[in-house]
Each structure stands twice: as C-alpha cells, then as structure tokens.
Design goal:
By secondary structure, the protein is mainly alpha-helical. The chain contains ten helices and no strands. It is globular, with a radius of gyration of 20 Å.
C-alpha cells in the first residue's frame, strides 16, 4: 500500500505496532530518501548519513509498541536531526576529553543527559522563533529571563491576563510541535517537563 494520505499512514502505524514487517518496509521505502537528504545536508558525509538513517529506522522498529506518533515524517526527520546533533556533540566531547586527559573521567557518563538537554534547548529556541511576535516575546521574558507575569505586564504595557493568554498560546504551540515531531519520545521526559512547567 502506497502512503498517499494520513489514513494510509495511520493504518500502517497500527500494523507496525502489531509487528507487521511489511508496514515497516513501506515506511522505509517511502521516507528513506528524504531522511538521507536531511542527514547528508547536516553531515556532508555519505557513510555517516546512511548510518544515521539506518539507526533511526532501527529505533522505529525496536520501539514500535511504545511510540505514539502523530506525524511519521515529522517524527523521523526530528529523529535524524537529533542523531546528527548527538553525533557531533559526542565527537566534540571526546576531543575535549582527550585534550584534557580525562578520557575516563566520571563526567563522561553525564554526556547523554547534557546532549539531550542541549538538543531540547536548541529545538525549543527554533520553535519559539516561529511563534507570533507577542507570544514569542512573552515566552522569552517568562522562560528565558525568568520574569514574573506582573513584571512582564508592566514592561509590555498589557494586562496580566494578556500575559497569561500569550504564555498559554506559546506553550500550546510548543507542546503541539513537540508532540507532532515526536520530540517527547526522543528526549528525557523530565527535561521537557522542567522547561514546560
């Protein structure tokens, strides 16, 4: 079955959840070229790009029963970008550890959490920049600068209810994007909860 609609996609997702290898192959054949292009654009390394796409599809299969995917394209694209991000952060960390002669330092164990946190911060920044101007400004003043609602209201010359409405709108946009892109499934849920509290 070719994937020509969301209905087709949802049917295949249901089949995938029930261990249908044919559904997995359909997703692979439909999306691998686009994902390879994304990986190549970020790495400029054919072998690395192929490895990353392969890894993303393997995780799709391994976690087929746990994942709740709204958009397969968004989920897989985000997974590829996340894998590229993790690869380069790990490489950078390894180089730094060698330079510092700390290859076996205990802090290396924390790399995964730090990488996940950095990816989440960069992802959220990207989504925030696409928000309507007022919502973007309120979100940054609240979450980045740590200002209270009354302070934001006074600074922007709007009511506290206006601040709350814009903050609610910003958080709704962010949560929906994260859900659709599958970001909650790629990173530590605790980190997401901390940033969205």
């Amino acid at each position: 079955m070719a994937i020509t609609s969301l209905q087709d996609e949802h049917k295949l997702l249901l089949a995938l959840e029930h261990d249908d290898e044919a559904a997995f192959i359909q997703f692979y054949q439909h999306y691998w070229k686009d994902l390879l292009t994304i990986a190549w654009n970020h790495t400029k390394d054919k072998t690395l790009a192929e490895d990353i796409v392969h890894e993303v599809f393997m995780k799709l299969w391994e976690n087929r029963k746990e994942q709740v995917i709204q958009s397969v394209a968004g989920f897989l694209a985000t997974a590829v970008k996340f894998s590229v991000f993790k690869h380069y952060r790990k490489e950078e960390r390894r180089k730094n550890l060698v330079i510092e002669n700390q290859l076996f330092n205990d802090t290396y164990v924390d790399d995964e959490a730090k990488i996940n946190q950095l990816f989440l911060e960069e992802y959220i920044s990207g989504v925030v920049e696409e928000m309507p101007e007022r919502s973007r400004l309120v979100f940054k003043l609240s979450r980045t600068d740590g200002l209270k609602n009354p302070e934001i209201a006074a600074m922007l010359g709007i009511s506290e209810k206006g601040v709350e409405a814009n903050l609610t709108r910003a958080l709704k946009i962010l949560r929906e994007r994260m859900k659709n892109d599958g970001v909650f499934l790629l990173i530590a849920v605790e980190s997401a909860h901390f940033l969205l509290k």
